[in-house]
Design a protein that fits this description.
52% of the residues lie in helices and 14% in strands. Strand 6 and strand 7 form a beta hairpin.
């Protein structure tokens, strides 16, 4: 049952979070706690029947309600259990692997309060990689009730809607394992138009177990693919309820090429990604060329230094050889000197040397006398 809101007081918003115990639940809870709008009731549905009695993250300022039914719940039943337990005047869904920006609820509430003809409003949604990085696509389709009959372009947590739509019978169909949210939006669109806010305030983590945003159109329209079979189930439910005018308008949108702009948008996105990859590859090639040039310079410098070292090594070897020869020659001279000294010493000590000493003395006298006479005759 909804709470009674006093006049002039903000309406209570119930955020319904179906969880199967993913680790990303904490990020989802924190993103709700960070909302600039209050009051908020966080309704966590334990779809895995894990016996949950608390939630991770900063939920202190939120009114928290945990729903345990005693059994594991498929996606549709978990959503219905959450709406049944919710007390707010407005509902929105947030699965445990997605998150919202701080102004998400405030912006949608402003949109609904400024246009009383609409009871549901949605914002743009950024799709990311499974790890939450590298955003690659934005869901930003304007509201078109005919296009909604053909394709789901509103991620579940992008929408905020009045509780009155639940009270009037809008429920998730448990016959659908996927596209249960698309079927629900078709139900809601029968009762109210949607307001679209052109601002990214919701974030959708790609690669989940309900991945329904295949970029390949061939997969989407392949009757044997998982997505194709799921689309057929939705069409089988609604074909008998569509009016001739609705079918005619749907065909008209196809004839007018409404699919082509979507394909052009996909091609444009792919072209932008290819250009980005081309620029990245070009930068990598330039870096490789710069590194190759630097390596070539280093190789040249290395070769020059190596040649210089080799020359110095040759000179050093040559000098070492010459030094060795000189050292060897000096050794021979030293040995000869010692031999001469020994011979001289032996000669001086010999008997003949001693007896000839007077003769050597007379010889010196005669030499000196002749030298003096020669000098006087001059």
């Amino acid at each position: 049952m909804p709470t009674d809101t006093a006049p002039g007081q903000p309406s209570l918003v119930s955020v319904i979070c179906r969880t199967i115990g993913r680790s990303e639940l904490e990020q989802a809870v924190n993103s709700v706690a960070a909302q600039t709008y209050l009051p908020i009731e966080l309704v966590v549905v334990d779809a895995a029947n894990s016996g949950m009695d608390s939630v991770p993250g900063n939920s202190g300022q939120l009114s928290l309600k945990i729903v345990n039914t005693g059994t594991a719940l498929p996606r549709a039943d978990a959503a219905n259990a959450g709406m049944k337990a919710a007390s707010g005047d407005y509902f929105m869904f947030l699965d445990d692997d997605d998150w919202i920006a701080p102004k998400h609820i405030a912006g949608l509430m402003d949109a609904l309060q400024s246009d009383t003809s609409a009871r549901a409003a949605y914002s743009n949604t950024q799709r990311t990689d499974p790890d939450g990085s590298n955003p690659d696509y934005v869901f930003e389709q304007d509201y078109d009730p005919i296009m909604l009959l053909r394709d789901n372009y509103v991620p579940i947590h992008a929408m905020l809607f009045e509780r009155s739509l639940f009270d009037e019978g809008c429920r998730f169909d448990n016959r659908f394992d996927i596209f249960e949210d698309w079927d629900f939006w078709i139900q809601v669109s029968q009762l109210t138009p949607f307001r679209h806010i052109h601002e990214v305030t919701a974030f959708y983590r790609g690669g989940g177990d309900s991945e329904t945003s295949a970029d390949d159109v061939n997969v989407r329209y392949d009757n044997d693919s998982v997505m194709g079979k799921a689309r057929i189930k939705v069409f089988n439910k609604w074909l008998g309820k569509w009016t001739g005018e609705q079918v005619n308008s749907m065909l008209a949108s196809l004839d007018q090429g409404s699919v082509v702009p979507g394909l052009h948008a996909q091609l444009k996105e792919l072209d932008a990604r290819l250009n980005a990859e081309h620029d990245t590859n070009l930068r990598h090639q330039q870096q490789i060329q710069q590194q190759a040039a630097a390596q070539e310079t280093l190789q040249h410098e290395y070769n020059v230094a190596k040649g210089t070292v080799e020359d110095l090594q040759i000179k050093l070897t040559d000098r070492e050889g010459r030094i060795g020869e000189l050292e060897q020659h000096a050794t021979h001279l030293e040995r000869d000197k010692q031999l001469l000294q020994q011979h001289l010493e032996q000669l001086r000590n010999s008997f003949s040397w001693k007896i000839t000493a007077p003769l050597r003395y007379l010889r010196r006298l005669f030499v000196n006398s002749d030298t003096k006479q020669g000098n006087s005759s001059e």
